[in-house]
Design goal:
The structure is a single chain. This protein is α+β, with helices and mostly antiparallel strands and about 725 residues long. It folds into 3 domains: about 150 residues, Glutamine synthetase, N-terminal domain (Ubiquitin-like (UB roll), Roll), CATH 3.10.20.70; about 400 residues, Glutamine synthetase/guanido kinase, catalytic domain (Creatine Kinase, Chain A, domain 2, 2-Layer Sandwich), CATH 3.30.590.10; about 130 residues, Four Helix Bundle (Hemerythrin (Met), subunit A) (Up-down Bundle). The chain is built from 27 helices and 17 strands. Strands 9, 10, 11, 12, 13, 14, 15, 16 and 17 form a 9-stranded mixed sheet that branches. α18 crosses α19. The chain is globular. The two termini are about 25 Å apart. The protein binds adenosine-5'-diphosphate and magnesium ion. Adenosine-5'-diphosphate (ADP) binds next to β9, β11 and β14. It comes from Cochleicola gelatinilyticus. One of its GO terms (molecular function) is glutamine synthetase activity. InterPro entries: Gln-synt_C, Gln_synt_N, Gln_synth/guanido_kin_cat_dom, Gln_synth_cat_dom, Gln_synth_gly_rich_site, GS_Type-3, GSIII_N. Belongs to the glutamine synthetase family. This is Glutamine synthetase.
Length: about 725
């Protein structure tokens, strides 16, 4: 009997919900472990406080002597909350967060000790960073990397450690993390959007990109997860026949949340409240044991930090509740995968959502300006946007059999489609007073304020307008949002800069009125970006054909998709906007290709191990039972034995066939891997893993899954889909 599987199932059956302590009111504990404005007012001098606020709001530099004061205040606050250590908390290109804890504790003369945390330690650290991915940047120059304080994301206490959000850069200043280019992109979009927003309101001095992510995940019992080598090491099942019941009955989505899970969520949300992560929504998702968590949106840099932190917290709290969180985009074949919808918009310092329709024609023209420019940006840079969400795990969602395609398109709903159709007809050149009045009354003025409630939804669109924001749905559940957010904000910034130039030129050279000029340019953009707009079923085959006709890219695998990151246009875009240098871009490209190859390599090894060392031996055991049976029947029935043993004999043969296919598949897989590993060029290596190695996964899996259906359940060593997905 396969002991591990049945032990794990037994353990799971015996679980009881873990008790949790929830505060009476969440608002009372919100941000309690964050060095936020409240805490700063209490622990900092007025000068220090103002200096931090200026840095956050205006991007000014914090003087070193002020930093000394801030660090002292921060330390006192942290110690008062039980912190003993501090760490620079950053997001290297591994996808995880990194931290190295140092105690506040320091010894002084005479065998005495004090708690110390100086400005220097707050502002800059030099982690021994040689083992973080760097795409060759640090090797070429200098082995050191620096972390530097990012005052726009507040410090927080996690456990007993004061965590200080930082950027991570090389000695020569190249970004080695996700945050640095994101901050640069956010600054760029701020400037570009502010300049355009001033057409409509002179009081706008700052525009923040906002982000509300929706985190989908699976929750599996810890013991069950540990019983499967593939889940333990790769975060997904590499084989396993689908359960007789999956999600066909649609009975999980928004269903009642199982009590063990609910207690996990309550515990998690309490921790989130303390950390100032404004989580608000929780529900069951479509697949069994799949759930979602969403916050109230925030400024993008903070939202990105909060998502990274959340994923870490989710892991830790899950352990307390005897669960394992699966963030993988496709942990189980045949049921829905997980995404991380990135809801995105632009908000002014005057409190206006630039993607929210307003109450007057002028406000609606402002809305249309930002709305149409965003669509144009996506149209012009769809390949780069696709590249920003490419990863080995997201490949299972984008372009795979049962998932949305890898085509980027934008959905805007029928009402706005009508508006754009009308706008497309405006006169080329100056508009007559009559036309303008008509436009204002009948087109622009007609955009309903309550669009939010009226917009039709299209769940199949990768980039959908949902009433007052765009929702980038193709982002994978494991992704660090910084990557897609850097690209989205960069392309919108570039678009807005070029829009402003053209409008200004019409005003200056053609003596046009401001709104005439805006209408003229918007009309051109609507025409130029038609191919990206798609309102139909994004999952259908017809769309793939149609998209091809429209010249939209459909890059189904990561090595192919990533290439757009290093195209001439992309490099020019990032360099012109000062977001990334060519060296930084090339380094990232290399890191992502390498990561891709490594992930496939690891999965290939795991699959080889499971198939050869778990599945085949089990199949042989069962086959031997059958053989014994046939032998016995032959003794009893002699010549007639085939009347009784025929089916068993057919089974024996069937098992042998599957075993042969699996074993040959693994041999071929290993051969291909060997060949691939000889390749030095990283691009070619990634392609080899994608095109030569990975195809064997399907073949091997197919035959293993067939054996699962044949072999005695008592013998089967791998916890089955029905057990993983339906044990609560
Ligand atoms: P759904 O898309 O599932 O219907 P909602 O529309 O309520 O759900 O919002 C989903 C997410 O979008 C939430 O995280 C919410 O905070 C975020 N969101 C709402 N408005 C904005 C905005 N202006 N900018 C960015 N995110 C937003
Ligand atoms: Mg949504």
């Amino acid at each position: 009997m396969s002991t591990l599987r049945f032990h794990a199932i037994k353990e799971t059956f015996n679980r009881v919900p873990i008790e949790v302590n929830e505060p009476e009111r969440r608002s009372a504990i919100f941000g309690k472990n964050v060095f936020n404005e409240n805490a700063m007012r209490q622990y900092l001098t007025k000068t220090s406080y103002n200096s931090v606020i200026d840095a956050v709001e205006k991007g000014t530099k914090i003087e070193r002597h002020v930093a000394d004061h801030i660090s002292t205040g921060m330390k006192e606050w942290a110690i008062s909350k039980g912190a003993t250590h501090y760490t620079h908390w950053f997001q290297p290109l591994t996808g995880a967060t990194a931290e190295k804890h140092d105690a506040f504790f320091e010894t002084v003369e005479n065998g005495q000790a004090i708690e110390k945390f100086g400005g220097g330690q707050l502002v800059q650290q030099e982690p021994d960073a040689s083992s973080f991915p760097n795409g060759g940047i640090r090797n070429t120059f200098e082995a050191r990397g620096y972390t530097a304080w990012d005052p726009t994301s507040p410090a927080f206490i996690y456990g007993t450690t004061l965590c200080i959000p930082t950027v991570f850069v090389s000695y020569t200043g190249e970004a080695l993390d996700y945050k640095t280019p994101l901050l640069r992109a956010l600054q760029t979009v701020d400037q570009a959007a502010t300049a355009v927003a001033k057409y409509f309101d002179k009081n706008v001095t700052k525009v923040n990109a906002t982000l509300g992510w929706e985190q989908e995940y699976f929750l599996i019992d810890k013991a069950l997860a540990a019983s499967r080598p593939d889940i333990s090491l790769a975060g997904r099942t590499l084989l396993g026949h689908s359960s007789a019941k999956g999600q066909q009955l649609d009975d999980h989505y928004f269903g009642s949340i199982p009590s063990r899970v609910l207690n996990y969520m309550r515990d998690l949300e309490t921790e989130c409240m303390l950390l100032g992560i404004p989580v608000k929504t929780r529900h069951n998702e479509v697949a069994p044991n799949q759930f979602e968590l969403a916050p109230i949106f925030e400024e993008t840099n903070l939202a990105v930090d909060h998502n990274s932190l959340l994923m870490d917290v989710m892991d830790k709290i899950a352990d307390r509740h005897n669960f394992k969180v699966l963030f993988h985009e496709k942990p189980f074949a045949g049921v829905n995968g997980s995404g991380k919808h990135n809801n995105w918009s632009l908000a002014t310092n005057t409190g206006v959502n630039l993607l929210g329709p307003g109450s007057t024609p002028m406000k609606n023209l402002q809305f249309l300006t930002f709305f149409i420019n965003t669509i144009k940006a996506v149209n012009d840079h769809e390949e780069l946007l696709r590249a920003s969400i490419a990863s080995a795990s997201n490949d299972h969602r984008l372009g795979a059999n049962e998932a949305p395609p890898a085509i980027i398109s934008a959905f805007i709903g029928s009402q706005l489609t009508e508006v754009l159709d009308e706008l497309e007809k405006v006169t080329n050149g100056k508009l007559s007073p009559q036309e303008k009045t008509d436009l204002k009354l009948n087109v622009v003025g007609k955009i309903p304020e309550i669009l939010l409630d009226n917009t039709d939804r299209n769940r199949t669109s990768p980039f959908a307008f949902t009433g007052n924001k765009f929702e980038f749905r193709a982002v994978g559940s494991t992704a660090n949002c910084a990557n897609p957010m850097t690209v989205l904000n960069a392309i919108v910034a570039k678009q807005l800069i070029s829009f402003k130039k053209r409008v200004d030129a019409l005003i200056k050279d053609k003596k046009m009125k401001k709104d005439d000029a805006i209408f003229n340019i918007l009309r051109e953009y609507i025409k130029d970006s038609k191919r990206i707009r798609f309102e139909g079923d994004g999952y259908g085959e017809a769309w793939e054909k149609e998209a091809e006709k429209r010249g939209l890219s459909n890059k189904k695998t990561t090595p192919v998709a990533l290439k757009a990151k290093v195209s001439k246009e992309s490099i020019a875009l990032f360099e012109d906007l000062g977001i990334m240098s060519e060296v930084e871009i090339e380094a990232r490209y290399e890191i992502e290709l390498e990561e891709y190859a490594k992930r496939i390599q690891i999965e290939g090894r795991i699959l080889g191990d499971i198939a050869r060392n778990h599945v085949i031996p089990t199949a042989i055991k069962y086959q031997n039972i059958l053989i014994e049976n046939v032998r016995g029947l032959k003794v009893i029935y002699e010549k007639d034995f085939k009347n009784f043993a025929g089916e068993q004999m057919a089974l024996i043969e069937e098992i042998s066939e599957h075993i042969a296919k699996i074993n040959k598949g693994i041999t071929a897989l290993i051969d291909e891997r060997r060949q691939a590993n000889k390749i030095e060029d990283i691009e070619k290596l990634a392609h080899a893993y994608c095109e030569d190695v990975k195809p064997y996964f399907e073949v091997i899996r197919y035959h293993c899954d067939k054996l699962e259906l044949l072999v005695d359940d008592e013998l089967w060593p791998l916890t089955k889909y029905r057990e993983l997905l339906f044990t609560k």
